[in-house]
Amino acid sequence: MVLPIELNKRQERIVEIVKDHGPITGEHIADQLNLTRATLRPDLAILTMSGYLDARPRVGYFYTGKTSAQVLTEKIRQIQVKDYFSLPVVVQESATVYDAICTMFLEDVGTLFVVNKQTKLVGVLSRKDLLRASMGNQELNTIPVNIIMTRMPNITVCQKEDYLTDVAAKLIDKQIDAVPVVKDTNGESAYEVIGRITKTNITKALVDISGDAII
Ligand code: ADP
């Protein structure tokens, strides 16, 4: 869940009160606003979860001193692969280049992951890998994809718990469009593919964050 960074008037008032009088209990904040503690509860929850305020039991609320830009940066850094990944589209390593082209068109993706008979990741196929193989080649129906794919161990992967910003850095650093989300199968260095992160997922995260934020 991405929390709103833009505060409403009441939340801004609460932040001001806590800035001036903190540490201060919820009860006392409510008194200052002529409201009940129950009415304030959702606002206080939002302010603590989004990082503007901190709360200590029996002490009360205090101001963290974070600017909205800092709060926003922290929010972005906290986004994990599991919050945004899509389903993977895979082909068998015995599939032909022609099959892979059809799959890429039909599934409307830009990158395919190649798996072996045990469904473990063995390769990656990009649009240009398939275009390159097609140029001047009449045998697309017979050439298996494992001849043209980028293969293990040269595949950049990520895991569900990784931070999305780290995956974004990998995409830029390696100049690739997608990485498979994998599950390590008992450290056998054989990966099961459970998802994909592409530039589209990262753009989606950016749109969600900026839709919620006013810096
Ligand atoms: P395109 O080749 O269509 O521009 P990419 O930039 O994603 O698409 O791919 C560039 C090259 O990097 C291709 O040869 C592809 O096989 C390879 N590649 C793509 N994704 C990965 C990855 N996650 N790990 C390693 N190599 C990859």
What does this entry look like structurally?
The protein is 43% helix and 18% strand. The two termini are 19 Å apart. A 4-stranded mixed beta sheet has the order 3-4-5-6. It has a two-stranded antiparallel sheet with strand order 1-2. It is elongated, with a radius of gyration of 25 Å. The chain is built from 9 helices and 8 strands. It folds into 2 domains: 67 residues, Orthogonal Bundle (Arc Repressor Mutant, subunit A); 126 residues, CBS-domain. It has 215 residues and is of the alpha+beta class. It binds adenosine-5'-diphosphate. The site of adenosine-5'-diphosphate has 15 residues, from strand 5, helix 7 and strand 7.
Give the helix/strand layout:
Elements lengths: L8 H13 L4 H8 L3 H13 L3 E4 L3 E4 L4 H11 L2 H4 L5 E3 L4 H11 L3 E5 L5 E6 H8 L15 E2 L12 H11 L3 E7 L6 E8 H14 L3
This protein binds adenosine-5'-diphosphate.
- What is the rounded distance between the termini? 19 Å
Identify the CATH homologous superfamily of the largest domain: CBS-domain
- What is the overall shape? elongated
Beta-strand segment tally = 8
Short recap of the structure:
This protein has helices at 9-21, 26-33, 37-49, 68-78, 81-84, 97-107, 127-134, 164-174, 199-212; strands at residues 53-56, 60-63, 90-92, 111-115, 121-126, 150-151, 178-184, 191-198. The chain contains nine helices and eight strands. It has two domains: 9-75, Winged helix-like DNA-binding domain superfamily/Winged helix DNA-binding domain (Arc Repressor Mutant, subunit A, Orthogonal Bundle); 81-206, CBS-domain (Roll).
